[in-house]
Design goal:
This is Arylsulfatase A. By secondary structure, the protein is α/β, with parallel strands linked by helices. It is built from 24 helices and 14 strands.
Length: 637
């Protein structure tokens, strides 16, 4: 009997040791551009049987968020486990150079023995886009099937059917012709329950109905991936995550810091073999906050891999699970051809948005949506014809500097309560929290993108914008309150702004000029100070923002001379892009000739082509649009 117990103990230890060394397979299924419009989230018009079943067997997260409402910025956060404004990857799109010290979870998984595949979208918004050491395979054919026998896998499959581009009329016709979608929408467009920010017009109803057809198609693709696991007898050894890369996808959702742009569906499935890693029962829900910055740390933890200290999120599953956060933070910056700078924070009930450049209306920020979806065009046409109500018109009007929404009472975020007396305490709490977070993560958003090359790069003290922002040279504690003051644009701060444009710190000079732009005061003293500032300013983007302010200070023709010269002589793609924006937002583009726009299109740049790629690329959208409208001009504000 004693010998039997010894043998039994030996085998028990051996089994436990083997289990501790064994690693689970992990499958991430990502879709694009959807808010939680699934049956398992209570959306009554949904037809998503595969995801509903996965939720019934797994964990459904009710407060899951993308930290950014657009793919590239959200995905760089997912890749690194770091906030994009920390690494300098917050503008969309960009090719920001990252130092080797910035983590990327696939590298760590590969070092731990995982076979890592990505099928196939990357969109990492940084130099990691071309880093071949991230994946064993990354292509449309990448699959875990090609791993070695017994090797654990981590696989990402990205389902594109719900991407905003797929709602284009020609794409819908193609899906119908291939039998992927019904000839008529499954949901009668007249039965669609429209959000209050959309006018009730046929084109918008049809797009909403077809959007739900695409979600059903996406669900079918999810089912195929899950069935493949079963067919290969991998289901009981594979942890599955399903999530969308951000919210969406019709106008006023994707790209915008409303709840509909940031909240995502997220379901995690743990087979019985690995259920000891979580404290949930199948079919349960989790109401605590989870955001993309948390995913890499959690992934590495449940895979029993080392977690880099630089990662900024929290582990939300597994034996190393951390305390739930009290807040989630969000960011939005340049979206393609239009510069912007917004930050947001939520405590689950209230949602605060700080707009640092509020003069730019949301609905005029990019033309891409108008080229691929009829709902964008119909929405704008309704507003232009005076048929939109006050709520629907907000999208095309300048933003409030600070917005506060009660998400429980106002899930669509259509009525800001920031000015209401009962909001004073909550407004102060969330504003203080947002400031604290921005300073803690050393938010690079305060630095205008066209200034990056003046601060960092070859031959300079700092090689990357990340390294600069982590140094004492970046005085964010001093800069942040000045940026907020500039956004308010109060005339009583005129002398402060005039002092700021004389500061030794170029970032402070920038925000001083923006504050003067916001004042928009016809004042000869301001004109003189701005001209003096422009003449001695060594930083191109600071000359541009000062000239933009000059135009609204009563010297429009002189401002145009400066803006035209700076834009024409730009040798950096992002300076060029900013110059085109400045011409339009100063309304001095009315002085441009058709030949000016043609000459702009022929412009070349001297700085690193990889860095400037998107500056020139997105500038083309503005130039092509201007020429298509000629002799009319694009209304941008």
């Amino acid at each position: 009997m004693k010998n039997f117990l010894v043998v039994l103990t030996f085998f028990s230890i051996a089994i436990c040791t083997a289990q501790s060394q064994e690693k689970p397979n992990i499958l991430w299924i990502t879709c694009e551009d959807i808010s939680p419009y699934l049956g398992c989230y209570g959306f009554q018009q949904a037809q998503t049987p595969n995801l509903d079943k996965l939720a019934s067997e797994g964990i459904r997260f009710t407060n899951a968020y993308a930290n950014a409402p657009v793919c590239g910025v959200a995905r760089t956060t997912l890749l690194t486990g770091m906030y994009a404004p920390t690494t300098g990857t917050h503008n969309f799109r960009t090719n920001t150079k990252l130092p080797e010290s910035i983590p990327a979870y696939p590298k760590i998984l590969r070092e731990a023995g995982y076979y890592c595949t990505n099928n196939y979208k990357k969109d990492y918004n940084s130099s990691y886009e071309t880093d071949k050491s991230l994946w064993d395979e990354s292509s449309k054919k990448a699959h875990y099937n090609t791993r070695k026998p017994g090797q654990p896998f981590f696989a990402v499959f990205n389902i594109i059917q719900t991407h905003e581009s797929q709602l284009a009329e020609d794409k819908i016709k193609e899906y119908v012709a291939n039998g992927d979608l019904p000839k008529k929408p499954r949901i009668n467009p007249s039965a669609i329950v429209l959000p209050p920010y959309h006018p009730d017009v046929p084109e918008i109803r049809v797009d909403w109905a077809r959007f739900h057809d695409l979600i059903t198609l996406m669900d079918r693709k999810v089912g195929e991936l899950l069935q493949e696991l079963k067919d290969k007898n991998l289901e009981e050894n594979t942890i599955v995550f399903f999530y969308s890369d951000h919210g969406g996808m019709l106008s006023r959702s994707k790209r915008y810091l409303y709840n509909v742009g940031t909240q995502v569906p997220f379901i995690a499935y743990f087979p019985k073999k690995w259920r000891h890693l979580v404290s949930y029962q199948p079919g349960s829900t989790e109401d605590g906050f989870v955001s993309f910055v948390d995913f890499p740390k959690t992934l590495l933890s449940i895979a029993n891999c080392p977690v880099p200290e630089k990662m900024q999120g929290k582990v939300f599953l597994g034996k190393d699970k951390e305390a739930k956060p009290n807040y989630v933070h969000f960011y939005r910056d340049r979206m393609s051809e239009r510069y912007d700078f917004n930050r947001a924070v939520t405590d689950g009930e209230y949602y605060l948005i700080q707009n640092f450049v509020p003069h730019r209306p949301r609905g005029r920020s990019t033309r891409y949506g108008y080229t691929v979806q009829q709902n964008w065009r119909a929405n704008e046409e309704s507003f232009a014809n005076g048929n939109s109500n006050a709520v629907q018109s907000q999208f095309y009007q300048p933003k409030e500097t600070v917005e506060l929404f009660n998400t429980k009472n106002d899930p669509w975020h259509i009525k800001s309560i920031a000015e209401e007396n009962e909001s004073v305490e909550k407004l102060a709490e969330l504003s203080q929290e947002l400031d604290r977070w921005m300073i803690e993560i050393r938010d690079i958003g305060c630095i205008p993108e066209p200034m990056f090359h003046d601060l960092v790069g070859e031959g300079k003290k700092y090689a990357t914008i990340y390294e600069y922002a982590q140094s004492d040279a970046y005085e964010i504690e001093k800069i942040l309150p000045i940026a907020k003051l500039a956004a308010q644009g109060s005339l009583e701060n005129k002398n402060d702004f005039l002092a700021f444009i004389e500061d030794s710190n170029p970032i402070i000079r920038y925000w001083g000029a923006y504050g003067i732009f916001r004042i928009a005061q016809n004042d000869t003293t301001i004109q003189e100070k701005l001209i003096q500032s422009i003449e001695k300013e060594p930083i191109p983007v600071n000359r541009l923002i000062a000239a933009q302010a000059l135009a609204l200070s009563g010297a429009k023709e002189k401002a145009f001379e400066y803006l035209h010269k700076e834009t024409k002589n730009a040798r950096d793609g992002y300076v060029f892009l900013f110059g085109l924006n400045a011409l339009q937002y100063s309304h001095t583009d009315e002085f441009l000739t058709k030949q000016d726009w043609i000459d702009f299109k022929a412009q070349t740049f001297e700085t690193d082509a990889a860095i400037d790629k998107f500056g020139k690329e997105y500038s083309k959208r503005i130039m092509n649009d201007a020429l298509a409208l000629w002799p009319n001009r694009r209304v941008v504000d």
